[in-house]
Amino acid sequence: MGDEPQTTPDTVPEAPAAPAPVPAPPPAAPAADLTGLPDWAQSEIKNLRKESASYRTKAKSLEDESKSELQRALDALEASKTELSTTRTELTRSKVMTEFGIDPELSDFLNGDEAAMRAAAEKLSRLATDQRAASLRSAPVAALQSGGTAPAAEADWDPAEIARQVRDASLY
């Protein structure tokens, strides 16, 4: 109790003493200033710096190499995903074309997802059916021959010429 400051209504307690300041570390010697060291120490420091630099270079090249391998793997994965997507699209297009009886020459009109392809195939199928029906309605029934084909125009059909062609073909 004797060490504690007395407080009375007239006195203010004293603040504890501030801790002693921590001395700052001595400034590091400049990296290039090795002249004050013995020759063997200077030689050792230079060798260690070279060795450290080679390790840093090796570490950096390994890091770059691993990034390159990772990047190659990511690129291969992306290419595989693209190929898979293209293959699935072609398979879907082929299924839809077969289902609706669409001519392969019209495959360029089937794009998008399966629902869009089906809608386009349905329209193409309807148009093709309508066109076939219209062409059958426009062909004169009376002009049809027994084979179901319309006769050739009179100028294009010469029986003597046809006989000559048959005779010439059988001689050879």
Automatic annotation (TrEMBL):
<keyword id="KW-0175">Coiled coil</keyword>
<feature type="compositionally biased region" description="Polar residues">
    <location>
        <begin position="1"/>
        <end position="10"/>
    </location>
</feature>
<feature type="coiled-coil region">
    <location>
        <begin position="45"/>
        <end position="87"/>
    </location>
</feature>
<feature type="compositionally biased region" description="Pro residues">
    <location>
        <begin position="16"/>
        <end position="29"/>
    </location>
</feature>
<protein>
    <recommendedName>
        <fullName>DUF4355 domain-containing protein</fullName>
    </recommendedName>
</protein>
<feature type="region of interest" description="Disordered">
    <location>
        <begin position="1"/>
        <end position="37"/>
    </location>
</feature>
